[in-house]
Specification:
single chain; about 700 residues; alpha+beta; 25 strands; elongated
């Protein structure tokens, strides 16, 4: 995104031949009435006119996706999307590596190796469409302040309007295709454009803008002066090569006694005899109409043959641009100058607004900041997605731990000597990195392209599997009690059994009878003991294994998550299953079905049991939870957070996990002995054994033998 503004922040995005162009307008106060009809009228003024504009015709339908509800601003960022529908990229195939003279191609191609040359990419005048849409909203913001903006065409080529124009006359330019102020000038300017077009050439010109209603003192000084911020904005419009206020460069030929705008009283109002300064002195309005002119160069894309270079061969070349381009952009640029002026003035108008420091106002400020933060996080994620596309094209690995460490350190550094704790900055950074990685993982995910049938696919984990395999371009069918039948699995390349544990053996028998012989079959049960004997027998004669995703259905991706593949005796099944889940920086572990349940007795059953025992003990203590919560330590809160999550889980499933694991008795024996040992050491007057237990735990958790 390309931003401008301090209070009303305008952010531009998109490319000429992308799916759309658009913008985000932040900081607009709530409660301002916005007319979409008025936006449409401004957009129509920017549309190319027959004969003197580009043949590319876009509907330019403005879609406001947020920030305006029932015709009023709601105080949140206003997001605008304008679709690119009439796109023809074929004319750029032959000039993809031959920069167009006068265009941004050469520096862009050198700076960005993947620069999109089609239509000028991000440098295109196509991006002025959202400027006009946002500028129309800004104009409507300025109405209540009495600020009015009108622009017109001062010159095109050698045809110049030499008359003094006021705002009212400038407004009549909307009648004419060239945005001139009279029919005679419109005809002459049209002819100037057509003559250049016939020669395969183009012409430039000057747009003049007049603003009335600026109060004395409106603006700032030095680098925030009104003419400075306006000039910066104007130079952001494609093809602008000059900006002058009032008499501009002509003022250099005057003496001070001539150039000074002398003041006088008009009843109770302060006026000036002349307006040589264009209404701005010292960076602020002097109460006179603000007048400035913007010079636009001729359109650089022309069909007349010109010299250039072929960057692929690094040799001289000739270029003739055959795309659809305006022979003169000035008529369409008039509405863009008005819009950009409105955006700047709306932003500056907020400088003098000092909200009262009451609670509601401060909360509203926080709300606006939060909206901005969320929008920036969205932008960050969108950019991370683009990085994923680059990685995909270049074969770069998904994660780079060194880069992630540098990003985290950057966040901590930025938080130094501020009110934001460095740990908070780091925590936010890690969440953003996780989100970025998960987004990129979907881009880099391997292709599967097979027929997948999920038996029990209407369940939550079954639906997770559906989303996962569809993201790898697999064709997925769902077989469930209410949807489909087992016959749907007969042609499947991969069959996933995602039914409750007591049903798995029967489903495996049915799948064995129906599925083709080379199909990969696996379950995703969390405990394997109830059907381990049968699945090992089945694996002797077909491609069968068992899988356990060590996460819940809310997981966005496999990033940093464990997947256990249980070897039931068929090597091909294990290899194929590993490849399916070796995605998104996952951790795939292979073990036996017996060892799996031994691991689950502690990695899952013990974890569940200890948390259930924790909140059960609290309940039996007789102490109200509210009282414990008010006296809670950091450790208590951490433990309670996990226990609260466990308490929300399905009791039937958790009971099944505890009851059906063949290793449950051994786990409980170890757990009960550990509790007794810790109890004894805790109540002992001598702390030696307690210290040994703590030290032993630390060594074990650090991976020491």
């Amino acid at each position: 995104m390309y931003p401008i503004g301090n209070n009303i922040i305008f952010r531009l995005f998109g490319k000429s031949h992308g799916e759309h162009v658009g913008c985000v307008l932040e900081g607009v106060p709530a409660g301002i009435r916005i007319s979409e009809d008025e936006i449409k009228r401004d957009m129509d003024l920017r549309r190319p006119k027959d004969g003197i504009g580009t043949p590319r015709k876009e509907d330019d339908i403005v879609e406001i996706t947020s920030g305006i509800v029932n015709g009023f601003t709601d105080g949140t960022p206003i997001r605008i999307i304008i679709a690119n529908k009439n796109v023809d990229s074929s004319k750029y195939e032959n000039i993809a590596k031959i920069p167009r003279p006068g265009h941004a191609d050469l520096p862009a191609m050198v700076k960005w190796k993947d620069h999109d040359v089609r239509g000028g990419g991000q440098f295109s005048g196509r991006l002025t469409a959202p400027i006009v849409a946002a500028g129309s909203i800004a104009k409507q913001m300025l109405y209540d302040k009495g600020i009015q903006i009108s622009a017109f065409t001062r010159s095109i080529g050698n045809v110049r309007d030499n008359e003094m124009r006021c705002k009212a006359v400038a407004g009549t330019s909307k009648t004419y295709a060239t945005r001139a102020c009279s029919e005679e000038l419109d005809i002459a300017m049209r002819e100037e454009i057509l003559n250049a077009s016939k020669d395969g050439d183009s012409v430039g010109g000057v747009v003049e803008c007049i603003v009335r209603g600026l109060p004395i003192g409106f603006g700032g000084i030095w680098f925030d002066s009104l003419d400075a911020v306006l000039s910066r904005a104007m130079f952001g419009i494609p093809a602008v090569k000059g900006v002058e206020f009032g008499k501009g460069f002509e003022i250099t030929k005057m003496r001070g006694s001539e150039s000074n705008d002398q003041y006088y009283m008009d009843r109770r109002d302060i006026r000036a005899r002349t307006n040589n300064m264009g209404g701005i002195v010292g960076g602020m309005s002097n109460g006179m109409p603000m007048v400035f002119r913007v010079a636009f160069k001729p359109t650089p894309s022309i069909s007349k043959e010109q010299e250039s270079i072929d960057l692929t061969k690094m040799k001289n070349a000739f270029i003739s641009v055959k795309g659809r381009h305006d022979p003169c952009i000035v008529p369409r640029a008039v509405s863009v100058v008005e819009a950009m002026t409105a955006l700047v003035l709306a932003d500056v108008s907020m400088d003098d607004v000092e909200p009262e420091a009451n609670l509601d106002t401060l909360r509203k400020i926080i709300e606006d900041i939060d909206a901005h933060l969320v929008q920036m996080m969205i932008c960050r994620n969108d950019t991370a997605g683009l990085i994923g596309e680059v990685k995909k094209g270049t074969g770069v690995q998904l994660r780079n731990k060194d880069v992630e460490k540098k990003i985290i350190e950057r966040y901590r550094t930025m938080a130094e000597n501020t009110s934001l704790p460095k740990d908070v900055a780091e925590a936010v950074c890690k969440l953003l990195i996780t989100s970025s990685v998960e987004l990129q993982s979907s881009v880099l995910r391997k292709e599967c392209g097979k027929n997948v049938t999920i038996i029990g696919g209407a369940g939550r984990m079954g639906q997770w599997m559906r989303r996962y395999f569809e993201s790898m371009n697999a064709t997925v069918r769902i077989v469930d009690i209410s949807v489909g039948s087992m016959d749907d699995a007969k042609d499947a390349d991969i069959v996933i059994v995602a039914v409750p544990i007591p049903l798995i053996e029967d489903i495996l028998r049915e799948a064995d009878a129906v599925c083709k012989k080379d199909a990969l079959i696996f379950d995703i049960a969390s405990i394997k003991s109830p059907f381990s004997v049968f699945i090992k027998e089945l694996a002797k004669r077909r491609k069968v294994c068992s899988v356990h995703p060590m996460f819940g259905p809310s997981a966005a991706s496999l990033t940093d998550r464990n997947v256990i593949v249980c070897d039931c005796g068929n090597d091909d099944a294990v290899t194929e299953a590993k490849e399916l889940f070796d995605n998104d920086c996952s951790n795939v572990t292979v073990t036996t079905v017996e060892r799996h349940d031994e691991l689950m007795a502690f990695a899952m059953s013990l974890a569940h049991a200890s948390n259930i025992a924790f909140f059960t003990a609290l309940k039996k203590s007789g102490i109200p939870f509210s009282e414990l919560r008010d006296a809670a330590s950091t450790t208590f809160n951490r433990t309670m957070s996990v226990s609260a999550d466990v308490s929300e889980e399905d009791p039937a499933l958790y009971h099944l996990i505890q009851r059906t694991n063949a290793n449950a008795e051994e786990m409980w024996k170890v757990y009960e002995n550990a509790v007794k040992e810790v109890k004894k050491a805790s109540l002992s007057k001598n702390d030696e054994r307690f210290r040994e237990i703590m030290e032993g735990g630390k060594q074990y958790l650090n991976g020491d033998p």
